[in-house]
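note to self: dont lose this again. the chain is below, predicted strucutre after it. 928 aa total, dont forget to put it in the shared folder this time
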Amino acid sequence: MAVSGKSLAITVGIYAIILIVAVLLFSKWRLAKLTRKFYAPKRYVVTEGYPKPPPLATTFGGWVPQVFKMSEAEVIRCAGVDAAMYLKILRMGFELFLAVSFLVLVIILPINCTGDEVDNLIATNTTATNDATGEKYTFTSLDKTTISNIPSHSSMLWAHAVITWAVTFVAYWWLWKYNKEALRLRIFYLLNQPAGAESHTVLLQDVPGVAYGTIPNRADGTLLKIIPKSIKQKAFQQTEMLANKGMNIAKGVKVDVPIDLAKDTAADNAAAAAALSTGAINVEATTGRWEMRDEWVTAVNEIQANDGSVKAMVEGTLHRVYHDDLSAVHMVHDTSKLDPLVAEYEKRKQALTDMVDNYISLKRRGKELKVKQMTVVGATMGAWGKEKYGMKPKKVEALEFLRDRMTELRRAIREAQEEALEPGHVFPAAFATFRNRTSQVVAARTLMSEDLATWRCQGAPRAEEILWNNLGFRVWERAGRSLAMWAAFWAMAAFFMIPVTAVQGLLTMNSFLNFLNSIPIVGALVTGMLPGLALKIFLIIIPIIITIMNKWSGMVSVTQVDLGLISRYFIFQVITVFLGSFIAGTFANQLDQFIHDPGSIVTLIGTSAPQTAFFFMTYLLIGAFLDSAFGLMRFIPLIIFWVKSRFLAGTERAKARLWQDQTMTYGTMLPDNTISILLGLVFCIICPVITPVACFYFAMQYLVWKYQLIYTYGNVYQTGGLLWMKVFDQCMVGLAFLHLMMVAILGVKKSVGPPIFCAILWIFDIMFTIAVHKRFWRPQECLSLISAAEMDAKEAATLGAPGKGADEEVRQRYLSPSFKFDEAEHDQVLEEAERMRKVVVEGAEDEKLFAQEAEASVHSSVADEAEGRVTAARTDDTAAAGADLEAGARETEAFQDTVEQGGPGSFRSVTLSHYEDASEEMRGAKQA
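---
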């Protein structure tokens, strides 16, 4: 169904009203007492060292210019390098489409409007005498702004081809500029990693000599039938070595030769072997062959030589390569039985702490302390639960149960930890930490072994992001899972084409259209809003499904999972949102003509395909107006926050968690941004009016997400700017589709020269992509050896000895969280619970317990808003704002000092120019 100017205007008007209302509500509610912590949680966290953002103006709309003006240094200090990189991507989209809009609106739009092809085709509808066979096209006044209005064979098509070249090289220029910015931010991130963290650590996978993860250990009967026989035989031989206590590396091979020649053959082999053998290479005398090193055999023998210790084998192997630069090795263990116990323990501890806090809060308000009970089912808690509570549901005293359950869980956790540390539960993975960055760079970038099925080495992810259970997969299982995941992904994409086609088909049903046209305002709304909204709704669950697929495929960190989501979600949207909607919409818009005259398919594509651009324009309008409005207000999270804080969160600690624990990931946002770049580029020549919509989309997204990243959301992970590598490739896909579209459209317009002229651009696309990858990709993987050596020298001078910081940091960092247990905290929680139980149940007095601040262990600024109680920790907002302003200035200056001290001089000179305005801005604010 063609989109009319009326329906488009009504749609834009409604969207604009929604956006304006959202901005007005946000401007008011961000200052309201009830919701200010929800809309700016980072302003109210008082943990020492937490990067608090600067205060915003209390005037109604004063926050907008302040957010726009905040420097890159402020963004990095408050939200990290990924946030700065993401905002640069949005800024690039705005700048790119601002330039493209100027080109196409000034040159292409007037050319399209001067054509008469649409008028001629509309006239065809009125002169056709036979409805069954006559041509009948569906057009609106908006179509006169597209390339549909240019007749075939027209010389004006050359203008479209020339502007295609201009748009392409404008895009190249901006992409090259932001590639340099991305590299600058990436190096800045790498130079400022603390000693002993991922800057000094590598992840080793597929460690040989470990039974876990091998085919006999992991494959069931069905899978074994699929695996080739030769692979199965080798796998079973490897695991058999472990049972046989190892074997010699040098193996004799039986050779069948005639008896009378055996002696001569053996002598010849021995002579040849002696001639070829050197101090470093040994040729087998019995066969005359040199065999490659068998990593599995070597590892098994070394493990047995070290009393069965895999860790000693790994340390020995790495020590032979890196000598004293190796600081520590942490083996990864199977914690599948331990993890559920730890999860339940944390849940019970939180419940017990909240209950104690609640009693303290009630006591302060002068309310009666009643004994709380809870229903437990002993059968769900193993032998301990059955013995203590029986098999049936039973009501028990809550404080006593939680205390006893935590004690039992601590005992069970100790046993499970000891079991997990046994040799049979070792994963074929380890974290190796070095005393300096130089060795880490070498280890992460070099080949550990010629056998790629063993000793696979990569830079370690951040310890907080690791998916520990996925470290047990070997390369064969990761490859198999990845293949299965891709098969499921393509099947899902194919299935999703059904609803996409259905939406387009629904809008072409005559009965449906007649009903809509009888109610003009409804028809305008449906044609302008329904298709894009339906597509947005269908896409909601896709990121969740892809995330589950990525985790199942064996990715080892949250960063890998989310970067994988960025790639796959973009591919999915290209297939369904772009190609699916374009193909379905092209034929649906002129379905009647195509059915009655299939021979007119070429003319149909040339006239109908540009109409589909208006569908994609409505899709971008949703992102520009509705996504921005809902992204700013976050209505659903706000409702959940209000309900939980009002009715479910009974303690200060629980209420604090509601507004503090707000996080986001880039995996769902970036593909929406890059698909918008693709749509804007692909249709910028065909339908010039789409470019200002794309420009407005990126401007609004920049404002909304700059605020949210600085004031609201915390980081789930930190890639250090690796987002850009995905974005660049996706932008190049957009350019490739632009050139494909122009070649196709100009071709069906029966023009010879222009499509050939545009086809040449594919060569430039390939050349530009290769040039960018060669120039910028490798430096983003890890530090150069020169930069690493400079950082090592600075750290040695600062810490007093090379690797001292790494030694101290690594002791606990890359140990699974399931092995970490805070005994002091455990004892304190149980002690407070017992003291509270004596007060509640036995009526004892404990003034010291109630004198302490219930919220002191979390954040002293948390207040019980529902009861109207103001804590002593809360100070006057004006005084707090002044103090925060000074603190923000100090933090920004300290951040600049870090930049000055953190990297090589060549990089420092580039970096400081971007941060000099930060301290000046904050000093000016202090003086004001």
